[in-house]
Amino acid sequence: MPNHQEKTIRHSPRRIILVRHGESEVNEDEAVLEHVPNHKIKLIEKGAEQARATGRRIKEIVSEEEGWKVLFYVSPSSRTRETMEEIIQRGGTFEKERIVGVREECRLREQHFGNFQDLEERRKIKRSRVRYGKFFYRVPEGESSADVYDRVSSFLEGLWRDMESNKFGNEMNLIVVSHGLTILLFLMKWFNWTVNQFEDLTNPTNCEYRVLELGPDGEYSLASYHELDELKKWGLSDEMIEDQIIRARGLQPFLDRKCLVAPTDDSASDDSLGDYFDEK
Hints:
- The structure is a single chain.
- By secondary structure, the chain is an alpha/beta fold.
- The chain is 40% helix and 12% strand.
- It contains ten helices and six strands, in the order αβααβαβααβααββαα.
- The protein has a six-stranded mixed sheet with strand order 3-2-4-1-5-6.
- Helix 4 (78-91) links the parallel strand 2 and strand 3 (99-104).
- The N and C termini lie far apart (51 Å).
């Protein structure tokens, strides 16, 4: 009879793939934010091309095993839904029988930056956010990264319950199409990263994807698929990368790991934060 760990691995998704949306109207004209609601910002053709290319790569990844399936979770924004559609229909051309479902998930939406956004005010907010700290800084009439973390945590707690109740099989691949900051906070919650560690992370580029793959001990790791140089480029410290390797190889029990605290760095520049205003 299989033990609990074997059962957990057998009923856990093979992969969780996090995808940022493609380039949008904001990349062509940032002033669009002054008169178009953030959630209605659409992809441009370059963004659609990016999504199709990402779809092809994702299909290559998930189709390595026989009997593979995909389940999509998508933010309700126009640009994320359009990215997902390009991935499914024109990029990976996923067959209907392979797609278990598509679920719009409001908790995966973009950080709320207020309503219509004045460009000069946005520049002031960026400067203030650098001084205050990007995790706790609350955008006027909007959200802080901490607020987004809370709702992403709520989503993940539900996902973990689904995994524990065997709602997924090992042939399943979960594909989450969302926003740069939301993806970083998803990873922060999943891997128990600290606020200081979050502050050092770089935002995913448009249609960049990050693959969490199930390891031999039933834990997920970025190091199972991605090269270590990629993890460094994304802002993971040596200690964080070591933890990813441990998870990938199953070298020691999770509970034996100590909390890894990154040093505080107050030297962030104004430019380093630009990508966190993620409408682009």
